Amino acid sequence: MSDIIQLLPDAVANQIAAGEVVQRPASAVKELVENAIDAGADKIQLIIKDAGKALIQVIDNGCGMSLTDARMCFERHATSKIRKAEDLFAIRTMGFRGEAMASIAAIAHVELKTRRHEDELGSCITIEGSEVISQEPCAANAGTSISIKNLFYNTPARRNFLKSNPVEMRHIIDEFQRVALAHPEIFFTLHHDSQEVYHLPGTTLKQRIVHLFGNNYNQRLVPVEEDTTIIKLRGFVGKPEFARKTRGEQFFFVNNRFIRDSYLNHAVTTAFEELLPDDCFPFYVLFIDIDPSKIDINVHPTKTEIKYQDEKAIYAIIRSAVKRSLGRYNITPSLDFDQENSIEHLITPKPFEEIIAPTISFNPNFNPFANKDEKPRQEHPFLRDSGGYKKDPIPQNWDTLYEISKKESLFQHEIHEEKTIAVDEQDVSKPSERQLFQIHNRFILSQIKSGFMLINQQAAHERILYERFLQQLQNHSGVSQQSLFPQSVTLNGSDFELLRELLPDIRALGFDIREFGKNTVVVEGIPAELNNVGEHELLEHLLEGFKNNMAILKLDKRDNLARSLARNGAIKTGTKLSLEEMNQLIDQLFACQSPNQALNGKPVISTFTMNELMERFEK
C-alpha cells in the first residue's frame, strides 16, 4: 500500500489558515489597520465598498517597505515584530504572528503600493490567490496603500455565509471604533461607498469618545485613573443613569490592544452594585498598562484573549478604582458624619415671646339635627383661627351632603357591578357590566364564574401590541401619527447602520423616518399606538431591544422588531388605569390569538377558583 500522507500545497494551507484569521471583512480591516499602526503612521484612511466584499483599502503614512520586504510580507510566518521566542514576552506591537497578510492574499485580489520615506520610487505588487501576478517599481506616496478586492472569491462557501451589507458594515464599524479608541492621537477617516462615515482628528481620549459615539456622551463620562506597581489604569466609565440593557459599549484595552474578558468585566459591574438594575450594563472605556512579561497574548489567532499572572489583584484594583471614581464624582450616595442633624437646624430661630399658640374655636351648643329655620346660638362653628372669629354665615342645606355621599357610593357600586367573565370560553361580559379593580397599579382583578382572575397589565399590553405590529409588518398597514415638530436623532455608527437595515420594516410599522446627513435621521411621525413616547427615546430603545433579542433569542427580523417595539411601547408596571382603560385592555387582550402567553413565555392571566379560596380559609 502506497503512502497516503502528503504535504499540502502552500496555497491550500493558506486558505485553511485564512479561515481562522479572516472570518469576515471586518477581520481583514482589523489586521490591515493594526499593521498601519505598527508602521508608525499618524494618519490612516479606511475606504470600504459594498461592506468590504468589493473593496477594503487602507492608506497610511507609515514607514513603508522596501521591495524585498513588500514581497516577503505575504509569506507565512514572515514578520518584522519578533525574532525569537523570548520576544513573545515583550510584545508591544499589535501583530506578531506573521499570518494575516498571507491569509488575506490567499482568498482575495490584493494590490500593494509602498514606499519608504528615504526612497524615490516605491513598489507595486499584485497577488491573486497567493499567486504573484506582478511586481514592479512605481511612483507612490510615502507609506503604504493596500487594496483587497473580491474577498473570498475563491472560497464561495465562506462568501455565501456572509451576512447582508448593513450587518457586515456594523462589524467593520465595531473594529474601526476599537482601533480608533485605542489610539486617539492618530487621525482616522472611514469612507463607505464614497460617503464619509467618520472623520476623527488626533485628540484626547475623551474627545475621541465623543466623536465616535455622539456629543451627548460628553456629560456621561466619569474619569478613572489608578497607578499601582502591578498595573496602570486609566479611562472613563459612564454614569449609571445612562446604562443600557444591551452589551456593546464596554471596551477593555491591555497595552492598547482590545480584549474580551468576562472576569474583568465582572470587576466593573460589581463596582456599580446597587446603582444599576441587574439587566443593565454600564458604558466604559478602560486602558490597562501592564508589563508584557506578565501576560500571554498568544492564546487565540484574533489576539482578543489574554492570560495574566496575577488575575485576582488586577480584578481588585479595577473594582476599587471604578468604585472610588464613582464616589469621588458624587455618583454614589455618601454619608457626612460631621454634619449636625439636630432638629434645631430644621427650624428658623424665633424669639419665644413672638410665638403665638394656635387656638380652636367651636360652638358647644351646635346641633346638626336642629330645624333649618331655627338659627343657631352662635354663627361661627368649627372655625380655627388665632385672632378672633370670622363673620361668615353658616352654609345652608348642609344636611344634603349625607344624601350626596349616599348617591356617590351607589353610583360607584353600579359602575363596578359585574356579570361574570368566563375565561375558558372567552365569554367576556359587556364593559358596562364588569367589575374591575387595579391592584398596586400592576394587576387587574376581574370576577369570573368560577372565581376571579388576575391580569398582568404590562404583559397583556405587550401581547396586544406585539400581535398588532406583526400584522402591520405583514400587511404594511402601520398608521403614523405625524409630529408637530420633526425631531432629529443622531446615532452612533453601528446603530445607524442597523437602522438603515431595518428601515423598510420600521416604516411599515408607522414610523415616518428619513436619513439626514451622517449618522442622523429625522423622525416626522411615529406609530399612532405610541404617541405618548418621545421620538429619540423610542428609537434608541427600539434598536437596543432589537440587538438584545438578536443576541439572546435569535429571532426572525420582523418578529424581533415587533417584540422590541411592543415592549418599549407597552404601559409599564405602576401606571394607574381608569375603568375605561381597563375595559379596553381586556377587550383587546381576549381578541388576541394567544391572550394567555406573555412575550417571555410566562402567563398573562392567573385564575383562582372559589374552591381554592374556600380551602385557604377552611385550613
From TrEMBL:
Keywords, sorted A to Z: DNA damage, DNA repair, Endonuclease, Hydrolase, Nuclease
MutL C-terminal dimerisation domain sequence ranges: 435-577
Region Disordered, residue ranges: 369-389
GO MF entries: endonuclease activity
Domain DNA mismatch repair protein S5: 209-327
Start-end of Basic and acidic residues biased regions: 371-389
InterPro entries attached to this UniProt entry: DNA_mismatch_repair_MutL, DNA_mismatch_S5_2-like, HATPase_C_sf, MutL/Mlh/PMS, MutL/Mlh/Pms-like, MutL_C, MutL_C_dimsub, MutL_C_regsub
Family as reported in the entry's similarity comment: Belongs to the DNA mismatch repair MutL/HexB family.
Function summary: This protein is involved in the repair of mismatches in DNA. It is required for dam-dependent methyl-directed DNA mismatch repair. May act as a 'molecular matchmaker', a protein that promotes the formation of a stable complex between two or more DNA-binding proteins in an ATP-dependent manner without itself being part of a final effector complex.
Protein name, entry field: DNA mismatch repair protein MutL
Species this chain originates from: Mucilaginibacter angelicae
Gene designation per UniProt: mutL
